[in-house]
Model the fold of this input.
Amino acid sequence: MVIVRRGTAGKLNIFTKVMIVIVLMLIPIIVVYNSSNKTSTAVVEQELLQINLNRLRFFVEQVDVEADRLWRAAFVIATDPDALQLQLRPSSEPDYALLSSKRLLLQKVSMQSTSFEWVNDFTIYSPHSGVAVSTNLKQVYDADYFRNASQRVWDYRMIVSDRGPEKAFVRDLTMPFELPLKEADPNLFVEVSFSSHNLEKMLERLMNGSVGQPFLYHPGDEPILPRGLDLEQVREMTEQFDLIKTQDKSEGAVKITFQNEPYLVNYVKSTSLGWYLIDFQPMKKVLEPIEHSKRKFYAASLLLLLMGIASAGLLYRNVQKPINDLIRAVRLLRRGVYDHRIKRGPHNEFHYLIEQFNLMSEDIQTLINKVYAEQLHAKESSLKHLQAQINPHFLYNNFAFIQSMAQLERTEVIVAFTQHLSYYYRYTTRTEQQLTSLSEEMELIRNYLEIHRMQSERLSFREQIDDDLMAMVLPRLLIQPLVENAIVHGMEGKMGRFEIVITGRRTEAGWELFIDDNGVGMHEDELDDLRHSLEAQGTVNRSLGMRNVHQRLKHYFGSSSGLVVDPSALGGLRVGLIMEMEAMDDVGCSDRG
Done:
């Protein structure tokens, strides 16, 4: 299975392209070969059917010629003078003369019999004298024997010969020729017979060098088959043949399925004997050379594919893998992992490139560490300066409130107020640590809001934050400037009760914290200006604290994080802190150190 890998731009890499090219080269070759193979197989089948049909025709023609020659020999014997004299001899003729005449006639008949290739027998029988002359000395010839004489067709029946009982084709000629059989007693019978062994030998010769299974078949008789064929299987074949010959009763060549295997079937009917010569050729054996060639082709294709895969593997090891290592190293370098080094591979063209990349990464890491250290000092100085800006104005108001409470001699209020104030300043002046948990940050907000609530009783606040968010780590003093902004700009000009709601929840990408108030809010054009000022380099004093929080969120959590400002459902303003932790992969880990 080829694994499709993609490069940095979503494109296929070199290894995948090479594998696709190899497969695309093999597919049309295989498709064309299969199409050509099917066409060749069909042509071969048709040619084999026709060639085998012609071969069977020639075989049947030989059988018919030989059978006709034997039948014509019967006419020659019937017209022989000695045979004619035999039908006129009286039964009272002296034995010596009869024996002499029979011997002479037997010599002629024997000579006629031996002139044929087939093993045959000729018999002459005179019904008037009861004399029979035959080359078959075992068979008894009398009036009963010739009672069922067959003159028009060859009769296939059991006879007794010098070779013992055997099946033979028998045909009888009666004299005179024009005498219809059984209308009157004939003067002479001339019988011709030949054993079925003659046909069996011919079938064996026909079977040599062929993959077919030829046999002779006549409905109602046992098939004549060569040695080596299974009689039961032949009988099953004849059942199939009875269905085939209904379409063409003389000859044909068809393709059938027999015993779940394809066969080529050819058959020709003998005009002399009336028997069918049938040949069943199994397609597997006929098409074995083609199948062998097909297997060789697929083996060669597989070998070509394996060689292609091996070549692609070498290409992958020496080219694609170094490229992948370089791509991965560049990605890590972009994400801030500057200490990654590529392992040196084989000594080829990429060896020098990888070595130079490692040197470049080392130089970049050294340079970035120096620059980043300076940036951290600058950011810490900016944060401390911001804290120093926030604290004086807030401190003056608190001292004024303490003085007022002291004049009113409200000692309990002063004690509670100073406790909240001390926690607030202890937290904000801790500059040695720039990270904290959300739970500590919310504790600061509670003290900060309690300080303002004690100064203005119309202020109320509540929080709805998921418990699992409290352990989240974030930069210090992210929420306090936003709460302060809500009190300073939202509460002024607001009559009646002023409410602040802090909510927090986890999202698929990270966390979200929202600060809602029911203050005076902002118009849409003012909101647009505020959103624009968060990204601008220089801002007015009103948005300085919000812009600082926005930039710190982006610096710590990534470019997808920051502040969002929208109208609140409470009637005032909603400020949201979006912290997408997945964006942390796009910046260096040292940014959170």
In short: The mean pLDDT is 79. The longest strand covers residues 164-175.
